[in-house]
Amino acid sequence: MNTANNELLVGIDIGGTKTAVLLSVNPPEVIARKEFATRPAQGWQRAVDLIKSGIRELLAEKGFDASAIMRIGVSCGGPLDPDRGIIQSPPNLPTWDDVPIKAIMEEEFKAECFIENDANAGAVAEHRFGGGKGSQNMVFLTMGTGLGAGIITNGRLYRGTNDFAGEVGHIRMTRTGPVGYNKAGSAEGWASGGGMAQVAPKMVAAALKKRRKTSLAKLYRSGGPITAKDIGLAARKGDAVAIEILESTGERLGEVLAILIDLLNPDRIVIGGLAMRMGDLLLEPARRVIKREALEVPARTCQIVPATLGESIGDAAALCIAMGI
Predict the structure, then answer these.
(1) 131-308 belongs to which homologous superfamily?
(2) SS3 for the chain, per residue?
């Protein structure tokens, strides 16, 4: 496959579990993609070498020369220095201490490279191509193991003074409670997959004490973790205790969303991760709390929807960075 110079966008999506590299001419369409395990315990150099070799393999596979690359976009969890293009030891990449990924990629491929945190990049991707398309003021929540947010105001990404805008998971909801962001009772502790895993054993134990049946009992008695995935699967099979755990998490999510609605007055909140997979089991309790807690007019105006890019959001996010956020 041949193309003129400077028409190709390269996306790099770096996660704690896996890293993907991809090529595109017309985002969000992906014409070639390669994925490998990140393995942060083995250090950053191995992964960066695999990123470089992966890009070169995809270029060769599609008949591109490196001179075809217009820009490179890197999506990665924070903290980051996006201006200098440095990854600064994110929690899921503890060995990636001050990695100058921008300089490395620009030296290797002689093309401009941009870097952005994954929540901001996900917000831009959902705004351009997904559940936030057509909105002017949007909040995107990354509701996975943790809870973060990217904020779009008047159609543009809002970063804040130090690029820390959107750290909604750090908001304290209660004086005590499940831990997230190293803070007991935080929004991340109450409204995330990691929080659900902390709450579930207590709710299962209380149910068993009342002699209620639940398919989560075996996991609880084994002493193993009860993950958000376990809870979602059980809830979809009608397990009443699992449904109650989701409702409780959804109610806490609703409290967080009510705060965002009152503060930011968005026309849409798009929620990824758990909301995509669990839908109304999680979102209906959240909507009920919003109706009760948030200001009436902003609450009525704001749509609460699951993200629509699904598992491809990481790819689209990296390409949005390459397009230029």
Answers:
(1) ATPase, nucleotide binding domain (3.30.420.40)
(2) CCCCCCCEEEEEEECCCEEEEEEECCCCCCCEEEEEECCHHHCHHHHHHHHHHHHHHHHHHCCCCHHHEEEEEEEECCCEECCCCEEECCCCCCCCEEECHHHHHHHHHCCEEEEEEHHHHHHHHHHHHCCCCCCCCEEEEEECCCEEEEEEECCEEECCCCCCCCCHHHCECCCCCCEECCEECEHHHHCCHHHHHHHHHHHHHHHHHCCCCCCCHHHHHHCCCCCHHHHHHHHHCCCHHHHHHHHHHHHHHHHHHHHHHHHHCCCEEEECCHHHHHCHHHHHHHHHHHHHHCCHHHHHHCEEEECCCHHHHHHHHHHHHHHCC
pLDDT in tens, 37-84: 999 999 999 999 999 999 999 999 999 999 999 999 999 988 899 999
Nearest to 140 by CA among 124, 154, 129: 124
Instruction: Let me know if the fold of 8-116+313-323 is the same as that of 131-308.
Output: yes
Can you give the pTM of this predicted structure?
0.86
Tokens of 21: 């590299």
CATH architecture of 8-116+313-323: 2-Layer Sandwich (3.30)
Q: What is the domain partition of the chain in residue ranges?
A: 8-116+313-323, 131-308
Instruction: Name the band, by pLDDT with cuts 50, 70 and 90, for residue 2.
Output: very low
Closest CA to 269 of 116, 165, 152: 152
Beta-sheet pairing, 18-24 with 32-37? antiparallel
Percent over 90 (pLDDT), the chain: 84
